[in-house]
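User: I'm putting together a teaching handout on how multi-component assemblies are represented. Below are the sequence lines for each component of a complex, exactly as they appear in our records. Could you produce the 3D structure of the whole assembly as structure tokens, so the students can see both representations side by side? Please keep the chain order the same as the input.
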Amino acid sequence: METNTNEKLKKAASEALNISGAEAVIRCLLAEGANLVYGYPGGAIMPIYDELYKFQDELHHVLTRHEQGATHAAQGFARTSGKVGVALATSGPGATNLVTGIADAQIDSTPMVCITGQVASHLLGSDAFQETDIIGISTPVTKWNYQITKASEIPEIMAKAFYIARSGRPGPVLIDITKDAQFEKFDFAYQKCDGIRSYQPYPTLVMDAVDEAATLIAQAKKPLIVWGQGVILGKAEEEFKTFVEKSGIPAVWTILGLSALPTDHPSNRGMVGMHGNYAPNLLTNECDLLIAVGMRFDDRVTGDLTTYAKQAKIIHLELDPAEVNKNVLADVVLLADCKISLKALNDRVEEKTYPQWLQRFDELDAIEHEKVIHSDLNPSKTGLTMGEAIAMINKHSNGDAVIVTDVGQHQMVACRYAKFNQSKSNVTSGGLGTMGFALPAAIGAKMGAMDREVVAVIGDGGYQMTIQELGTIFQQHLAVKIVVLNNDFLGMVRQWQQLFFDKRYASTEMVNPDFVTIAKGFQIEAKRVKERKDLDLAVQEMMTSKKPYFLEVCVEKEDNVFPMIATGASVSDIRLE
Amino acid sequence: MEQKIFTISVYTENNVGLLNRISAIFLKRHINIESFSTSQSEIKDVFRFVIVVKMTAEKVVKIVKQIEKQVDVIRAFYHTDEETIFQENALYKVKSSALFEERQIQNIIKESHSNIVTVSPEFFVIEKTGFRNETEQLRKDLEPYGLLQFVRSGRISVTKAKMGISEILNTFKNNNK
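Assistant: Of course. Below is the structure of the complete assembly, with chains in the same order as your input.
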């Protein structure tokens, strides 16, 4: 009986006579379980904001301080919650300010629905006030986009938007709604979308390919698993762990794959790519079988493709057909959601160990430890290192925190040293490399995982790109922890200038404001640490605080991040100094 | 790798903006499109794009996958000239006086198997359907007589192999009953 009543209630909410398009948008969001949206009002989206006012008990709107912040917050929310993030903006500049976040979500496969207001349909093309062709502008960076000019289109298009954003390889969808369609009254009925005839998000796994993959795995003497975000997006962490443990194969990760397997899992052998670990990069060119799971062979991972894993057979577990053989030719392709392909592989893989092969990892790890890690984490010089700041966060988070990073040196150091016990804990801008991502993304990350500590680790450059979002944190009383690793430089660019441009530090030195005073201006508790002896207590105080907290760690000005593979170099040419 | 002419056929839904979405895929990769045409296909409400490009076989595979990845695209294919039957259409506008004063022009029309579409006191319009070299030859032949306007359509083509679009749509219909 109770179920029946619930069903009836549900139905009532998804049907309503003679309501406005704007109200329909809100009802669609609620029907999709989206009761949290990030946005910024303006002329062309005012009817929807008026409905937000009426529905404020059901739907929480977070006013960011810039539309870009709304997209990054929606992304952060999506990354920690696994749900679709939603961002709202008005037409014209409101819409164009979303573009960076949309591009970021597209390249990092983050499910997001953006809703923009548009000038009334009779004004389209007239260069009206705040008119911009956001459909045209966003086309190359959206998974799908659509302009609604009639209220009656809203339910079907919104249902499609959420379905497309979350299904298959997730991505951003933009829905542009003209102002007259928001005002127009119609009879509303909502039905969730469960398929589109021109769109097949889940290819069927070919079982012969699974057999071939199992044979290659059985024959391999030096196999290597490289995993990416596909494991997290496919909710395949358990299947992946089983695969790693049963097969006994060492596993290494791309930056977006980080946290899918706990950092201290014995088979987790570190990061690949430009600033990845020594062993994973060198052994990519020594393994005889490379098993790529939910990763896309990005150029920051592979370096020079003509010398990348040429000696190895390649098995590619991938959901998106367009990623198959795009950068690296695979010998066997398992085209499916990796939750399904890993399960199928697990049934066919023998339990095995590779003591000699693992010995190679240990040897190389020892070299990296001696040349890089030891001095990063236990420096003998006076200045603080980024590495020891991250290690201190580990000490006080026990690896349970979500770490949100921006882009640059601090990001690489954080990903190299941060400890993670559970999945969906590493939120960063990978593919697009969007400076300014971390602070707003941390807002969403926290709201997507309210029971967890969220620490945003940001450089002094990126922090100032979206620093205004301190206002959002203040207004929302969000207990986000912010750590700025301040070297008074755009550190990564400066490092490249040092190494490749004869130390011509063009526009990379930053004369910074007093970050502590700024944070305090937003009523956020704030501290600055300059000396090693104060770091432990300061991080402890931050991590135990129940409120937002800002910590500036002044680090050595001209430290470099190593190991490093120069752009276009082979993974074999990884440098330790 | 050698660059070749490929005909890309794309079956899509009929949505505003899809043309932009498809052409953006070429733009992103700095690829010049040789010709582009779109029309209703053999299936109701399904549109067909015919895009001609010059590129390597390796690149065309990747670009077709990117096209097919678009939500509103049902299927995309690529074919070499040998695998398709293709034609272009051209219109030639010439002064009417030339038709009556220059007898040679009537021979050109006859020999090129082109047709006169319309004749008015000021001008007449010739139409020719064929391969690029044929419409091009006619253009050269007519040029001395004063070509007022010349226009050539993009390539339209059908493939020798089956496309199976109806099957895809029917499978979807049956699975979603």
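A couple of points students might notice: Residues 25 and 157 of chain B are 21 Å apart (CA to CA). Chain B is about 35% helix and 40% strand.
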